[in-house]
UniProtKB/TrEMBL annotation, chain A:
CDD domains (UniProt xref): PH-GRAM_MTMR9, PTP-MTMR9
Protein name, as recorded: Myotubularin-related protein 9
Domain Myotubularin phosphatase: 148-523
Membrane topology recorded in Swiss-Prot or TrEMBL: Peripheral membrane protein
Keyword Acetylation (UniProt): yes
PROSITE patterns: PPASE_MYOTUBULARIN
Top-level lineage group: Eukaryota
Family note: Belongs to the protein-tyrosine phosphatase family. Non-receptor class myotubularin subfamily.
CC per GO annotation: cytosol; endoplasmic reticulum; perinuclear region of cytoplasm; ruffle membrane
Gene name as annotated: MTMR9
Keyword vocabulary terms for this entry: Acetylation, Cell membrane, Cell projection, Coiled coil, Cytoplasm, Endoplasmic reticulum, Membrane
GO molecular function: protein phosphatase binding
Keyword Kinase: no
Automatic annotation (TrEMBL), chain B:
Residues the entry annotates as binding substrate: N267, I268, C330, S331, D332, G333, W334, D335, R336
Species, as recorded: Oncorhynchus tshawytscha
Coiled coil: none
A GO BP entry: phosphatidylinositol dephosphorylation
One Pfam family named in its UniProt record: PH-GRAM_MTMR6-like
Record's protein name: Myotubularin phosphatase domain-containing protein
């Protein structure tokens, strides 16, 4: 993956050397046994084979052909998920499997060199120390126009809310992260609920995640909240403050919905571990609905099976379809979308407020709340709005990106907390985008870009597991934000959807299996050439730009002529 | 039972069963018509009787009797009739009307042929097959037209005019055709040729010197090649089984310089069952993802589509890349052979990817070469074992190709869906009967109209906005990827969304609208410039404006001052 192709292509060759020197002076020197090998042959999908010099630096694997106009390989070690070695005589081959699902092959002359390179890559791609990660070393080669770290502050988001309603306030009860370690310092809560009540409710919710505002539906004033599961345990513990907190969001005489992303039986089992769900007796104004979004460990297994199915070499249709089915990936997509539609429906159609939670409230909960907003709120379908959504509902909301994205589908290591929770969210967004191709300001390129950067990046945006961790790492001072890069005009243009026409309606996607497709842009990206589809896309851009331009000119001409006519012959103006 | 009328009938929307239109049902000789009572909308739904595949009547409910009408193009109309008696009558009438026993009962033969005599005669000269052969460069010094079949003496399922190698003498042609029910002839010519025939009557040991000479002559007509491919599109096992019945395949020992290749397209019975299953999958109401994918796999449909496409790819490669002539056959030479040859033609020749080109290809490879339309598409009550979706599969291959090559085809999906419909509808005389001879004997040119000019007249709605005659994708041969994951269920055929909610647009419609808008504006400009000095402008009355597909209000077509019109256009197109 070229994390930043503009950046790479404009690198002067001397930079390569300097970069290497700088890294070798540092902690990485001892990890790199062989820093360079000549005569290495690189093979990758859809690109011609390149022969050149392989260099290892602290953060990159670089292949340079030392010729102008030949694209070189700059691969972040952090993007490497697994490697395989093969030997034929003294010619070694390293197969590099990346977290973005690309597989490349390096033929390296000399067994010793090959072994050294392989072991160095293995070590460098699995470094645990956060302080050694690339974002701390990366210096932007572009001009930062707007600092992404300051683009989406909770205070600013709250100003929008304040303009719509006075029923909510911004609480700094969590300013030192002591009430909830995975929440940001500022959260929106009902105005009538004081901080003390919040503290008590937090003690009753998994991970201290007391119910907070996720979304306010301007059309009818209904809200969506999210939280962790209530800690009722087996003996049905209750918490008056928690009840008060969520009841404060209901209008008089109205009922709300609690959407538990787990099945009834999973939620029941959670009681034995101290968790549980809201009982009817204690929450009489709420109707609870259980859905069936799987736990994160199962999602990881599903991703591995899906990628394996896509890599199957046999040409059998039966085999492909049965492997696709067995992976269960599409089932997860359908389940998540269905739950998001349900939440959106409760709010928009039933005119009811909604509380969403699963177990921790950091995974399936966020999938549901963020997708429901895509459905309901046209602002989330713009480039800026989508960034704000990711910032609000994923980064600030405490999705543990670092844990979830440290391994992808190829890794041989035993998975710890890895899970493609965010990737599934992106997949669901893509499904909606595909069904409403004119209602999104961004194209799928944006979604693919986010997928790449959550797994390996030069930017600090997706580092850490919560706002508190990010603040401890001082990321906003020491690293560059992905949004700084994305929001430059040329990048915005690249990520824009030429078909976009602002659409202020709620969009209801179809969740029928017949309407859901495999996301080719990610899963078949390196399997089949996208040339013809890219050409079609360019053609689309061409048609619209040409027509717009053409139209503009013609209209301007017409207007001028009309203005002239109007002065000459006023009669023509009467309708 | 004709001109039956039933009142207070409900037409049920299958996607939202609670929504239903109340109206009156009329049965005419040719159509079932539902007219909504609502005086404001008075929406009409017309079902042509020849399109009706089945009429089911589930058990009567308190609110009345349901009738579920399935059409041959996989649409479903559900009616609720208050009285059981009426429902039974309608069912009986429809059953009778939808299964005509004589050609004369069909729609195209039930109208007065001389009402538009001139138009009718003209409609049949719309396509000129001879011109297409001339476009290919035949006849020439190697391939000539033979009078052997002029009165269908040699083969009554072939057209009267055939092209054969110049070196093949009349005895060779006749001898070869006796050894096969349908001797080799040439439907596609570049340097290398694609020839088609039926299986040889070889049994275990029979041979025919003339047939061997014929194949030799085909090889010699391609100077520079020293062998030809004989493509047997059947699975090898089926071909071997045919030997016991005195048929089979070419013995490579007897024929000098042939290479025999089996492709493995299943027979018409397997395909019939498979399509039944895929249409069931498309109609599943609320399947789980597992049900859907399992259904897709067990239908085997995509596997069969892949086999047909693979056959075409093999032939196209042989002809275009190896420069080797190909003789294609299956058992009879009118089903799988037609599929394989026409898919190959679409891959090889850009012309067949245009609207007129595809019409010509169907006219040549299917209509003139004796595909048994009336048997396969059940035009008359007949042997259900003769029914099979052979051309459906060809049209679907074209659709799958258009998904891979979005700029390569002049037509859009609607064109293919419309062609499919008319193969079954019998509204036009093109596809009646089972061979050219039968059609001539029925006098169809004198008694019916041809479909082709009608499609051509409506071409604006069938145009693919991404098609450009000078686009690289349009040129040369198509090399599709036939890995299983490249195939999708054809939703536009098997899972049509009857009513889409407002913001769901397709890129095709949007782009078409953008193009139209510019064109209109240009017209307005010209119009305006012409009348500018003094006269009154009357814009917007030109043809074609009515056929707009986007949310363009009709009022814009009426007489309006120019300046107002421009503003509206701007709003729609420029964001």
């Amino acid at each position: 993956m070229f994390l930043c192709s503009h950046f790479i292509l404009t690198q002067p060759v001397t930079f390569l050397v300097k970069h290497q020197q700088r890294c070798q002076e540092m902690e990485f020197a001892e990890l790199i046994k062989t820093p360079r090998v000549d005569g290495v042959v690189l093979r990758r999908p859809f690109l011609p084979t390149v022969e050149g010099t392989l260099c290892l630096t602290g953060h990159h694997l670089i292949l340079s052909s030392r010729q102008d106009n030949t694209e070189e390989l700059w691969l972040l070690h952090a993007n490497i998920d697994a490697i395989e070695k093969r030997f034929v005589g003294s010619l070694g081959t390293i197969i590099v499997k990346c977290k973005d699902l690309r597989v490349i092959q390096l033929d390296i002359p000399g067994m010793e060199e090959c072994l050294n390179i392989a072991s160095s890559i293995e070590v460098l791609s699995t470094l645990d120390s956060v302080s050694l990660m690339y974002p701390f070393f990366y210096r932007p080669m572009f001009q930062v126009i707007e600092d992404g770290w300051k683009s989406f502050l909770p205070e600013d988001a709250f100003k929008d809310l304040e303009s719509m309603t006075e029923e909510w306030r911004l609480s700094d009860v969590n300013k030192d992260y002591s009430v909830c370690s995975s929440y940001p310092p500022l959260v929106a809560v009902p105005k009538d609920v004081d901080d003390d009540t919040l503290r008590k409710a937090a003690a009753f919710r998994h991970g201290g995640r007391f119910p907070v505002l996720s979304y306010y539906h301007k059309k009818n004033g209904m809200v969506m909240m999210r939280s962790g599961q209530p800690l009722t345990g087996t003996n049905g513990r209750r918490c008056k403050e928690d009840e008060k907190l969520i009841n404060a969001t209901l209008r008089a005489g109205k009922r709300g919905y609690i959407i538990d992303t787990r099945t009834v039986s999973v939620a029941q089992q959670a009681k034995a571990r101290g968790g549980g769900f809201e009982s009817e007796a204690n929450y009489p104004q709420w109707r609870r609905i259980h859905k069936a979004i799987e736990r994160s460990s199962i999602l990881q297994e599903s991703l591995i099976k899906l990628v394996e199915a896509c890599n199957d070499q046999s040409h059998s249709m039966d085999r492909w379809l049965s492997k696709l089915e067995a992976s269960n990936w599409q089932t997860h997509v359908k389940e998540i979308l269905t739950t998001a539609c349900l939440a959106a429906q409760c709010i928009d159609r039933e005119g009811a407020s909604v509380l969403v939670h699963g177990t921790e409230g950091t995974d399936s909960t966020l999938q549901v709340t963020s997708l429901a907003q895509i459905i309901l709120d046209p602002a989330c379908r713009t480039i800026q709005g989508f960034q704000a959504l990711v910032e609000r509902e994923w980064l600030q909301a405490g999705h543990p990106f670092q844990q979830r994205c440290s391994q992808s589908a190829y890794s041989n290591s035993k998975p710890r907390c890895e899970a493609p929770v965010f990737l599934l969210f992106l997949d669901c967004v893509w499904q909606i985008l595909r069904q409403f191709p004119c209602s999104f300001q961004f194209s799928q390129h944006f979604l693919v870009l986010l997928f790449e950067h959550t797994y390996a990046s030069q930017f600090g945006t997706f580092m850490g597991n919560s706002a508190s961790e990010r603040s401890k790492l001082n990321l906003s001072q020491k690293t560059v934000s992905l949004w700084s890069w994305v929001n430059r005009p040329q990048e915005v243009e690249r990520l824009s959807n030429p078909l976009y026409e602002a659409n202020c309606l709620v969009i209801w996607p179809s969740v029928a299996p017949q309407s859901l497709l495999l996301w080719e842009g990610v899963f078949l990206r390196w399997k089949r050439s996208s040339r013809c589809l890219d050409e079609a896309y360019d053609e689309m851009v061409h048609i619209i730009q040409y027509n717009n331009k053409e139209l503009q000119n013609k209209v301007n001409n017409l207007r001028r002529q009309l203005a002239q006519l109007e002065t000459e012959e006023p009669l023509l103006q009467t309708p | 039972f004709l001109n039956e009328t039933v009142e207070n009938v409900r037409l049920i929307d299958r996607t939202a069963p609670r929504k239903a239109m109340v109206g009156t049902l009329y049965l005419s000789a040719t159509h079932t018509i539902f007219v909504e009572n609502n005086p404001e909308t008075r929406r009409e739904t017309w079902v042509l009787h020849s399109m009706v595949a089945s009429v089911e009547r589930p058990p009567t409910t308190p609110s009345g009797s349901h009738l579920v009408v399935h059409t041959k193009n996989f649409q479903v109309v559900q009616l609720l009739i208050p009285q059981e008696r009426d429902a039974m009558d309608v069912q009986a009438s429809l059953a009778r009307l939808s299964r005509p026993e004589k050609y004369s009962e069909l729609y195209c033969l039930s109208i007065n042929p001389n009402a538009n005599k001139e138009e009718r005669e003209e409609s049949w000269s719309f396509l000129d097959l001879q011109a297409d052969y001339r476009r290919m460069g035949v006849p020439n010094n190697l391939w000539v037209s033979t009078p052997a079949n002029s009165e269908y003496r040699v083969c009554d399922t072939y057209p009267s005019e055939l092209f054969v190698p110049k070196s093949a003498t009349p005895p060779v042609i006749v001898g070869s055709s006796k050894f096969r029910s349908r001797g080799p002839s040439d439907p596609f010519f570049s340097q290398a040729a694609i020839c088609r025939c039926s299986q040889p009557l070889s049994g275990f040991s029979a041979r025919s010197q003339e047939d061997e000479q014929m194949l030799e002559a085909i090889m010699k007509s391609n100077p520079g090649s020293d062998y030809i491919y004989v493509v047997d599109t059947r699975p090898k096992l089926n071909a071997m089984a045919n030997r016991a019945a005195g048929k089979g395949y070419e013995n490579e020992d007897h024929y000098a310089n042939i290479k025999l290749q089996f492709i493995g397209i299943e027979n018409i019975h397997v395909m019939r069952n498979s399509q039944q299953k895929i249409s069931d999958v498309g109609e599943l109401k609320t399947p789980s993802m597992g049900d859907f994918l399992w259904g897709l796999e067990s239908s085997g449909w995509l596997k069969h589509i892949k086999a047909v496409l693979d056959a075409g790819v093999f032939i196209a490669k042989a002809v275009a890349e190896e420069g080797i002539s190909v003789v294609v056959h299956c058992s009879d030479g009118w089903d799988r052979t037609a599929q394989a040859c026409s898919v190959a033609s679409v891959l090889l020749e850009p012309y067949y990817r245009t609207m007129k080109g595809l019409m010509l290809l169907i006219e040549r490879d299917w209509v003139s070469f004796g595909h048994k339309f009336s048997h396969r598409y059940n035009h008359l009550e007949g042997d259900p074992k003769e029914v099979s979706p052979v051309i459906d599969q060809f049209l679907e291959c074209v659709w799958q190709l258009s998904e891979q090559f979005p700029c390569a085809f002049e037509f859009n999906e609607r064109f293919l869906v419309q062609l499919h419909r008319h193969v079954y509808s019998c509204q036009y005389g093109n596809f009646l009967g089972n061979s050219q001879k039968e059609r001539r004997d029925m006098g169809l040119r004198e008694r019916t109209h041809s479909l082709w000019p009608q499609l051509w007249k409506d071409r604006a709605q069938y145009a693919n906005p991404l098609y450009r005659a000078d686009h690289t994708q349009t040129q040369g041969i198509l090399r599709p990827n036939t890995t299983p994951y490249c195939f999708k269920m054809w939703k536009g055929m098997y899972n049509r969304v009857e009513k889409s909610s407002p913001p769901r647009q397709t890129p095709t419609d949007l782009l078409t609208a953008v193009r139209e808008e510019t064109q209109q504006l240009e017209e307005e400009l010209t119009n305006h410039q012409e009348v500018a000095p003094g006269g009154t402008a009357q814009p917007g009355t030109k043809q074609g404006i009515q056929t707009r597909s986007r949310n363009a209000p009709n009022e814009r077509c009426s007489l309006r001052p120019i300046y107002k019109f421009i503003n509206v256009s701007l709003l729609i197109t420029i964001n």
